[in-house]
Design goal:
alpha/beta, 222 residues, 3-stranded parallel β-sheet, 8 strands
């Protein structure tokens, strides 16, 4: 039998002689995994997760956009906090099962927050479905990819910040285009209705308005 300490405790199997070593592994950012043979403690080994490349820079960029990051992990408290400290995340919810991750999303939404969720596993699917916007890691499970709104093909979470920046810029461009289009019509239509606007000038102004909208939108390419 192979599993974590909580599972073995629920089965009444204790690893007293290995608990101290398991705590040391957790403090090093490693996930302790226990082994029992015939219902008796037999061995302990550890699995180490490494933060994704540029993860710390991505978290800093998200903070600048007003995002408050939170890590929900199925790992132990010590392991979760070790990894979180490396990438600059302050809030950690450890030993979070799928239902707990879903509850976190709903709690934040009830508090008036808009929640984005990044995940890559089957355990993340319920929370991905409930979030206001969700991102799946492209190298993750098919369930996570199918559930999420967007897929980060390269697995680079910095792309989340890029998506947010592009979305914000797009919205600003739309508002600017509407402002100038409505402003032009608000001035030109009454003048035309009074017969004070030459049709040739009006058609030229309309073409110029369309060109200005297109040129303004092309700024998004930068």
């Amino acid at each position: 039998m192979v599993g974590n300490a909580d599972w073995f405790r629920s089965l009444g199997i204790r690893f007293k002689t290995l608990d101290k070593k398991a705590l040391q592994f957790s403090a090093q950012g490693k996930t302790p995994v226990f082994v029992a043979v015939d219902g008796k403690a037999a061995a302990l080994f550890a699995i180490a997760d490494q933060p994704r490349q540029h993860a710390a820079a991505a978290i800093r960029r998200l903070r600048r956009l007003g995002v408050e990051p939170l890590m929900a992990t199925g790992d132990t408290e010590a392991t979760g906090r070790y990894i979180a400290a490396q990438v600059g995340i302050d809030t950690v919810v450890a030993q979070a099962k799928p239902e707990r991750k879903l509850a976190i999303v709903r709690e934040l939404q009830e508090q008036g927050g808009r929640v984005g969720m990044i995940g890559d596993g089957i355990n993340d699917a319920p929370a991905l479905a409930a979030a206001d916007v969700s991102f799946a890691i492209g190298t993750g499970t098919d369930v996570a990819i199918e559930t999420a709104d967007l897929t980060l093909v390269s697995g680079d979470i910095a792309k989340v910040a890029e998506v947010m920046e592009l979305s914000g810029a797009t919205l600003r461009i739309i508002k600017q285009n509407l402002f100038w289009a409505l402003g032009y019509n608000s001035v030109a239509i009454p003048v035309a209705a009074l017969g004070k606007l030459n049709p040739m000038i009006a058609s030229g102004a309309m073409a110029l308005s369309s060109i200005s909208v297109v040129l303004n939108s092309l700024r998004l390419q930068r």
